[in-house]
Amino acid sequence: MSFAHESAYVDEGAQLGEGTKVWHFSHVMGGAKIGAGCSIGQNVFVANKVTIGDGVKIQNNVSVYEGVVLEDYVFCGPSMVFTNVRTPRSAFPRNTSDDYHETRVCHGASIGANATIVCGVKVGAWAFVAAGAVVTKDVPPYALMAGVPARRIGWACQCGEILKGEDLTCAECSRSYIQAGAGLELSSQPA
Q1: Residue 21 to residue 161: CA distance in whole angstroms
Q2: pTM of the entire structure?
Q3: pLDDT tens across 18-69, in order?
Q4: Phi–psi pair at 177, nearest 5 degrees
Q5: From the CB of residue 190, how many other CB atoms can be counted at a distance below 10 Å?
Q6: Digit-coded pLDDT (tens) for 144-183
Q7: Measured between alpha carbons, how far is 78 from 113 in angstroms, rounded to an integer?
């Protein structure tokens, strides 16, 4: 069973998975699909046609606009921002689904507080976007991104620790990684 605080609005037709919680002053529109075990923080907006996977945590003051896809176990920090139109103009509204660009945040990725994800990018699996970063281009899996515009400053483990050294083995959990294209992939994990 899902839960919505009495001050939240969950429009008819919205799908909330088992164990999902929608907190104070949030609004989930009717066409949204939210998976199981999610936490939708205070003052969060989830638009029509948004898909959110299982185990996602969206902190306070985040708007998840149409065109955004959050895969399983994504973390969205407080007041981070998604956009969905590349060339917004008040005099020339973009208000149909054809005007919105897909932004995908892949499995396990984390986005820090006050970061901005510009529409049309893909944030790779287990990537870590630092607080305040502005992501304007695709992010490789496991990349640690920071700055304006965001650039890769290192690699992050699935457990969230920063990978140090050339061997790409996490000092905290002993997971090991290898280069795979522009990103990393898991090569071994603890027994």
Answers
A1: 28
A2: 0.95
A3: 999 999 999 999 999 999 999 999 999 999 999 999 999 999 999 999 999 9
A4: -130, 160
A5: 8
A6: 999 999 999 999 999 999 998 888 999 999 999 999 999 9
A7: 5
How far apart are alpha carbons 39 and 2 in whole angstroms? 10
Q: What single letter denotes the amino acid at residue 13?
A: G
Listed residue (134, 142, 147) closest to 186, CA to CA: 142
**Whose structure tokens read 């090569």?**
187
Name residue, tokens 């606009």.
65
CB 148 within 8 A of CB 164: no
Token representation of residue 26: 């949030």
Listed in sequence order, the residues at least 6 apart from 36 whose beta carbon sits closer than 8 Å to its beta carbon are 17, 18, 19, 20, 54, 55
Nearest Cα neighbor of 127 from 104, 148, 149 is 104
Token couple for 185: 């992939």
